């Protein structure tokens, strides 16, 4: 299946306090090819009087594209997270059942099919069956389903989502690699050599502490306390080198969920995020590299 390739993607987590239009302008100004969008943002814009065409134009008018409808949960019948993330449910369920409409209307060919159910709710065989059915339904629509490990939920490690990909057995399933989730979930660089180049669709980069601070849930730590690359304790250079060595460092983008960034203007976010992001990348894939 042909999939549009984007070298640099801006993830909404870095700029979630900005409007979608301002996020698109940020992406264009700072060398990103594309930005992702959440169904909740699409729903809010439609309620405010926008159309899918006018939302799509917010990106295209400044020379970038939308990619990754994120998150998509409807492929599992009992997808809801546990009590620690109960406040997040309205965000997750926004646009439920309209994902394909949104993807086609915005020119998006990827869905981030997340596994936000609590540990123990499903056996791997059940999850794989549901994912396989969904991926088969999405394939004729030109949609790739992308999996991401999230240590606070059902599939905690990158090894587990890779196993899910293989067990579901559909050619339009790929993987997303998030450095924060990978290190917090259980780092295993040897696994990277076993994954075919191209199977990791994108690498998200964020820093943070090596362990969750006392008195804070892993979910809160993930969504409020990440750091820009180089400002935390994570061995990002080692992990990125392992990815590059195995042919996986093709598409990159920062994903720094941070209450500190939320309080900044677009210019302040850029001053804080962009030098750190560019500095952590291997020289040959930095912005402007030949």
UniProtKB/TrEMBL annotation:
It holds the Pfam family AP_endonuc_2. It comes from the Bacteria. The keyword Oxidoreductase does not apply. InterPro entries: IolE/XylAMocC-like, Xyl_isomerase-like_TIM-brl. Keywords: Isomerase. GO terms for molecular function: isomerase activity. Residues 25-265 form the Xylose isomerase-like TIM barrel domain. The keyword Iron does not apply. This is Sugar phosphate isomerase/epimerase.
């Amino acid at each position: 299946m042909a999939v549009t390739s984007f070298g640099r993607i801006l993830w909404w987590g870095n700029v979630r306090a900005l409007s979608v239009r301002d996020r698109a302008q940020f992406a264009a100004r700072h060398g990103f090819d594309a930005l992702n969008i959440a169904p909740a943002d699409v729903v809010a814009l439609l309620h405010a009087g926008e159309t899918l065409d006018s939302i799509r134009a917010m990106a295209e008018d400044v020379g970038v594209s939308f990619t990754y409808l994120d998150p998509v949960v409807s492929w599992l019948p009992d997808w809801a997270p546990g009590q620690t993330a109960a406040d997040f449910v309205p965000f997750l369920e926004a646009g439920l059942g309209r994902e394909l409409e949104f993807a086609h209307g915005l020119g998006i060919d990827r869905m981030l099919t997340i596994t936000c159910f609590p540990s123990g709710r499903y056996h791997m065989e059940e999850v794989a069956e549901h994912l396989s059915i969904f991926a088969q339904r999405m394939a004729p629509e030109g949609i790739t389903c992308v999996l991401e490990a999230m240590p606070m939920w059902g599939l905690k490690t990158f090894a587990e989502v890779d196993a899910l990909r293989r067990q579901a057995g559909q050619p339009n399933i790929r993987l997303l690699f998030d450095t924060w989730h990978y290190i917090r979930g259980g780092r295993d660089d040897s696994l990277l050599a076993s994954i075919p180049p191209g199977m990791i669709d994108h690498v998200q980069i964020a820093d943070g502490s090596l362990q969750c601070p006392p008195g804070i849930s892993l979910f809160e730590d993930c969504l409020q306390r990440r750091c820009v690359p180089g400002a935390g304790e994570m061995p990002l250079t080692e992990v990125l080198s392992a990815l590059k060595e195995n042919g996986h460092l093709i598409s990159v983008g920062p994903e720094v969920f941070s209450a500190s960034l939320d309080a900044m203007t677009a210019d302040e976010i850029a001053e804080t995020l962009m030098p750190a992001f560019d500095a952590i990348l291997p020289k040959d894939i930095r912005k402007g590299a030949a």
